[in-house]
Write a structure and sequence with these properties.
binds 1,3-dihydroxyacetonephosphate
Length: 253
């Protein structure tokens, strides 16, 4: 199955506006001419308006790191999916483990966000993945299954086709410990099997499943060459133009 790969950058809460501008300029300057993958950048929300202008006419796509499902209202400090969509944001991360852990986001709340992102014509990048304790007890599959069932499996077939899934084992995020290509492939195949069970093979075959967790320029190619790994969601290594550009190269196959 030939799915278009994605190299996605999650800057998290990093970089000044000027550093971000420079990074985008350097990425645009170094992007391969024969781009065959999608490149998605999720900066801190406050930089998005300016970044969207910078990205005009390029192949790079702007993304939000989070959103609120309500359109508007008394939600101090929040930004709605509708607001992001109106300024030209194309993708929105949802269910990142840092949101789940640090801000207590439940599968139910994440489901509402997924719906809001789709209603506003953006693409959800749905993050899932288990903790180290769960993996040590070999409970990772049951945990990820519940995340998918409770936040995604209410979607209709034409909606799920728009979703990008990102498997990010918590023990690999920011730790320097990357899942082995075999561990990544095993979980990605399991996720695809679940998608097949719910939506059928044809639909499941179209859905991109990204890996995230300590991706670097030197491990991206081997991870992305696994049959069910359709690119990556990159944190630390996306903050440097040359390392992110080499990860784009690895996805550009
Ligand atoms: P690192 O690449 O820094 O491990 O972060 C991964 C991540 O959380 C991307 O969303």
């Amino acid at each position: 199955m030939n799915r278009k790969k994605i190299a996605a950058a999650n800057w998290k809460m990093n970089l000044s506006q000027d550093e971000g501008d420079q990074l985008i300029q350097d990425i645009i300057a170094g992007i391969p001419g024969n781009l065959a993958c999608e490149v998605v950048i999720a900066p801190p929300a406050i930089y998005l308006t300016q970044m969207i202008k910078q990205l005009e006419g390029t192949d790079l796509q702007p993304a939000a790191q989070n959103c609120h499902p309500e359109v508007s209202g008394a939600f101090t400090g929040e930004i709605s999916a509708a607001m992001f969509s109106r300024i030209g944001v194309k993708y929105c991360l949802v269910g990142h483990s840092e949101r789940r852990q640090l801000f207590d986001e439940s599968n139910q709340f994440i489901r509402e966000k997924v719906d809001a992102i789709l209603e506003n014509q953006m693409i959800p990048v749905f993050c899932c993945g288990e903790s180290l304790a769960l993996r040590q007890r070999n409970e990772q599959n049951d945990f990820v299954r519940l995340q998918l069932e409770e936040s995604l499996f209410h979607l209709e077939e034409e909606q799920i086709r728009k979703v990008v899934v990102a498997y990010e084992p918590i023990w690999a995020i920011g730790t320097g410990v990357t899942a082995s290509p075999e561990q990544a492939q095993e979980m990605h195949a399991f996720i695809r099997l679940m998608l097949t069970g719910r939506y059928g093979q044809t639909t499941s075959d179209t859905i991109r499943i990204l890996y995230g967790g300590s991706i670097k320029s030197d491990n991206a190619s081997i991870l992305f060459s696994q049959p069910d790994v359709d690119g990556g969601l990159v944190g630390g290594a996306s903050l440097n133009a040359s390392s992110f550009l080499s990860i784009i190269e690895a996805a550009n196959t």
